[in-house]
Amino acid sequence: MPPFFQKDFFYVKAVGEIDGRKQPIVKVNVEEEYYIALKLAKEGYGGGDPEKILNMRVDLVLMMWQYEIFQADYEKAYIHINKEN
Question: How far apart are the C-alpha atoms of 15 and 26, rounded to whole Å?
Fold first, then answer.
């Protein structure tokens, strides 16, 4: 099958509830290394080029990925702690 007839790489599958909040449930049809490279490139790593990230040392990529996860968790916690009741 030609690549342009393949299923979408990313799509919203349904709406669900996570931690008591309604959120979209998404489906990602991409191998994990490409997904991580795309996300990191979007954040500006590798000059925004996913191909450069795929060619980097694995330990550096994992460090960048873990930092992005930490930063997102920190921001969620900060908002939760400081939101007005």
Answer: 9
User: What are the residues facing 26 on neighbouring strands?
Assistant: 12
Q: Which one-letter amino acid corresponds to residue 72?
A: A
DSSP-assigned letter for residue 5: G
What is the distance between the terminal CA atoms of the chain, rounded to a whole angstrom?
A: 54
* Spatial distance between the Cα atoms of 69 and 43, rounded to a whole number of angstroms: 12
- Report the alpha-carbon distance of residue 85 to residue 68 in Å, rounded: 28
pLDDT tens profile 2-44: 666 667 888 888 888 877 888 888 888 889 999 999 999 999 9
Question: Encoding tokens for residue 46?
Answer: 């590798």
> From its phi and psi, is residue 84 left (phi > 0), alpha (psi between -120 and 50) or beta?
beta
The radius of gyration of the chain's CA atoms, rounded to the nearest angstrom, is 16
Domain ranges of the chain: 3-82
